[in-house]
Amino acid sequence: MASAALRSQVAAKWQEGFARLNRTEPGISGLISFSQAWNIAADYLHPRDITDPLSAKAHGTADMALVKAAFDMINRSRRLPVMLETFLDSICNQYYLIARDIHRYLAQYEQSADIGVMFRLIYRLVDWYRAWAPIEELGPTIRAAYTLTFQTQLFSILPPGFVRGFKALCVSTLVPVVQISPFIWDAFETLGLTDRYEGLIASVGYERIEAYVHETCTAKWDEPCLERLRHWMSTQIVPWMLPMYAKGALNTEEARGMLQNVGSRFDFHMNKTLCDLRTSEIFDIIIDFPDSMGALYDLKECLQRVDQRSSLVQALRKANRKRLLHPGADTKLILSQYVATIKCLRIIDPPGVLLFKVADPIRRYLRERPDTIRSIVANLVGDDDSGDSLVDENEPIQPLQQLETEDYNDPNWDPEPIDAGPDFRTNKPSDVISTLVSIYDSKDLFVKELQVLLAQRLLAITDDNSEKVEKERRNIEILKIRFGEAALQVCEVMLKDMTDSKRIDGHVQSQKASIVHPTIISRHFWPSLESSDIVMPGQFQALQTEYAKEFSTFKPDKKLRWLPHLGTVHLELQLEDRTIEMDVPPLEAAFIELFSAKNVWTMDELISGVGGVDRVAALKALLTWVDLGVLKEDVENTFRLLEVQEEAAPPPRSAPAAAEEPTVTAAQQQQADQMRLYWKFIEGMLTNLGALPLDRIQTMLRFAPGYDQTVEQLAGFMEAARREGLVVGRDGTWKLNR
Amino acid sequence: MEQLTTSLAPPRANLKPSVTSSTQQVAGSVAKRLTNELMTLMMSSSPGISAFPKSDGNLFEWVGTIEGPSETIYSGLTFRISISFPANYPYVAPAIKFDTPCFHPNVDINSGAICLDILQDKWSAVYSVQTILLSLQSLLGEPNNASPLNTDAAAVWDTPDAFRTQLMKHYQPIKDTA
């Protein structure tokens, strides 16, 4: 049972509500007019199906004055919030109409993939929005509430297919060919699509930039692209961005301010895209250097904007590993690519951090190649077949630079860049040769190899070709500037020997003419020449002795030691029916000389006749004559001189080996000698220090001059020594076997 | 000039390289000389003598090995010695002692100290590790009994059997450990 208080409470509330709705009208006429006004307003606001012409018409013909009066009355009765709620409810109820429409359009779009359908859909949605919008007079609050509800409902029913279509639509806005109504952006805005799909719209922009960069910049390295791209951005992308990101801007100044943030994002993306592109192309860019300067400048600028340095290093290292540092690549090629890398990375990153990181594997690899030094030296003295010099001819020749320790008193001192590794050495921009030489710990190796090469080239000079000697001299002079006077002293002596030989020969010839023209070299200063036990027989011997006699009268304190195998002999063979004239190596000459005594020789007789030479070399020399139709191998290992040419002389198998290069012990063979020296040290330390582990031996070998073997090489060497029974290895330690 | 800087060099106590720049320089030239001597020693194949630096960090401490010359009483025995070079080597003789106990008239049986004129007042800079080792080797066969360090040994030198007994009593073969 309700109490009296409750009753009076309810009665009071009712009175109050009644008074509000009825106002001060007599009876319930106020209530009736309110109810009419409510009906008019509700009817006006009711979301209609715009596809239905009838209802649209009814809506259009509504008496605006009446509607406004009705809203006014509701407002005065403070029932507007309730009205709004009812209205929003009815929107939700009626939204199926829009959903139906959307599905229809999308189905159509899926079928035709026509952007036009999407356009129509967007405009249709705008139509719906406009049709359902309450009148302006209700104020912004109600309008905002309506918009929010409309958009919420819209987003809730948009199917996934819409996003695809929407993106296509956005893409189409970027293609200038299609004429698009500028109002589409307003439509997006009205429907709240801009905010909701901001990321998607931006990604459309990004994709466009990526596509454009790849399309116009791929493999175009001769000129910088960045400037052109920036121009393209400002003429193509910025106008597109304007309606979305700078809506409502009154003047360009304001628009610029609004675009700043998003604009730099787009600019960054462009830089990043270009940077990624160039990073993926870097290896080929380096190959094309210096025709790819443009790309390098682009990359330099991009890297300042985008932090991709490490990925550049990684990409280049990977490319080098895959394309350069493998057995299939020629050492010369690796060297020239390395030099190009140095030059390129110096452009991109002057302090050299990138270079240091990239160069390290290349240098390590080059160090392991046996012919690296030879290639570098060959290039230095211009002995390169490719003619493609590693060194820029315009580059001033300068002494080799030593690694400098940092000068902290330098007022222009800069700290190392932050991405420099702990073992980064500040290498001041140094010239290419210094960098190449610094692959190895000391330049001695180069000087040694240079001597070998020079010896080879000097000995290859036949006749008195002083021009060539002069050329070598010029080379050496240039190299002196690099390696220093002292290092090339030996080379100097070698060159002097050449001119001295000529002078001595001139003198000896003036005393007693001889057809022997020796090159007299100072054994001490020349690299070890391959020795040979050939003793020239017959007239050669006589000529040599005669010459030596004459020489010792001229230089009584010196003695000639012949290296007959290094010369060449000009021969004229007079046979019964023919005369043969040719240049041959000494061994060939020696053999044919023997045949002047008798016509048939066995192989063994021949070999002992020239004082000891291995069978392979002997056979090769004899085959030269066989090929020339001078000798014939009747029975195996028995040769007969053909005084009369035989008809069916076999065609020459190969060109006569006349111009064979003199053999000089190559660096590799010298290494074997070095190893023998190291063995003495190993023996010494094992004798005195007892059993030693391998790494200890390796460090102790530091005492051996010029020791440069790796632990692995040493292990191999110790293993070889074990096989010969010199050492015993147990548990990783080695001791002498006794 | 060389001589001047060398004589200015601090005595042996300051052996550590990198103490001061001047020691370093001197140490550098001494090290060079020692490296050369090592090279010569390794290359020469004198039978029965050998020496090598004790560790790779210090060129001034060496270990040597001397085999007793054949047809002497020391034949077949191997002695280990230690050689310690002063910082002003070669102007001052290296300090040498036997690590393997050596019963010999001119060698102290306990400390291993050696009494040999070229290691003391007769030292000259032209001597080298190799000459020292050769001298020591010949000293084994021909002791100087006039100035013995080990009087017992000098006393029994003329009776080889007794000497050999004493010698073998003290001798310890070299163990093969570093």
UniProtKB/TrEMBL annotation, chain A:
One of its GO terms (molecular function) is ubiquitin protein ligase binding. Belongs to the cullin family. Residues 433-606 form the Cullin family profile domain. One of its GO terms (cellular component) is anaphase-promoting complex. This is Anaphase-promoting complex subunit 2. Residues 645-666 are annotated as: Disordered. It comes from the Eukaryota. It comes from Mycena belliarum. Keywords: Cell cycle, Cell division, Mitosis, Ubl conjugation pathway. Residues 655-666 have a biased composition (Low complexity). GO terms for biological process: cell division; metaphase/anaphase transition of mitotic cell cycle; protein K11-linked ubiquitination; ubiquitin-dependent protein catabolic process. SMART domains: APC2 (SM01013), CULLIN (SM00182).
UniProtKB/TrEMBL annotation, chain B:
Residues 1-26 are annotated as: Disordered. This is Ubiquitin-conjugating enzyme/RWD-like protein. The active site is at C115. It comes from Mycena belliarum. PANTHER family: UBIQUITIN-CONJUGATING ENZYME E2. InterPro entries: Ub_conjugating_enzyme, UBC, UBQ-conjugating_AS, UBQ-conjugating_enzyme/RWD. Belongs to the ubiquitin-conjugating enzyme family. Keywords: ATP-binding, Nucleotide-binding, Transferase, Ubl conjugation pathway. One of its GO terms (molecular function) is ATP binding. The lineage of its organism: Eukaryota, Fungi, Dikarya, Basidiomycota, Agaricomycotina. SUPFAM superfamilies: UBC-like. Pfam families: UQ_con.
